């Protein structure tokens, strides 16, 4: 049996970026591999948020949050916008557009975005722990802004690791809320 290898070309990367053979283990090559990995890692987080944690509706132990139908649709629209915003931020990070990612993060996810999302109107209908998780996500997004702005000044591998840590704080809040609560 012959196994045929297929080459997949990822936009912005070439196969040498991921080659770990002994002749490619120079410090420069390792740094490039680490940088490329750190640029791809947030995509895995985004996929997890889209796909979920695997629990089926029949076994869903999350707390049901009952909202009036118009507010439920509004909240689901907010969540879709949060996901689109994370995708846009990740794309900007992958393209080293840290200032653009910072601007979007604050405007659409950070503490400055609360009035845009109608948070004050939704809050009375949400359990207090769910409110706290949401607030922590917005705070984490504002902290991400600072890390992104720092990276735009000094774009090192350490700065990219800092971006991934800060982005993880944002998505960890998203995951915690989605793991504990449901609207339907």
Ranges with pLDDT <50 over ≥5 residues?
3-11, 13-24
Mean pLDDT: 81
Residue share in helices?
55-70%
Number of strands: 2
How large is the share of residues in beta strands? under 5%
Integer tally of domains? 1
Instruction: Give the helices and strands as they follow along the chain.
Output: HEHHHHHE
Counted by DSSP, the helix tally is 6
What can be said about the biggest beta sheet? 2 strands, parallel
Lateral strand order in the biggest sheet: 1-2
Structure summarized in a few sentences:
The protein is mostly helical.
Commentary on this structure:
The protein has 184 residues and is mainly α. The chain has one domain. Helices cover 63% and strands 2% of the residues. The protein has six helices and two strands, in the order αβαααααβ. It has a two-stranded parallel ribbon. The radius of gyration is 19 Å and the shape is elongated. The N terminus is likely disordered.
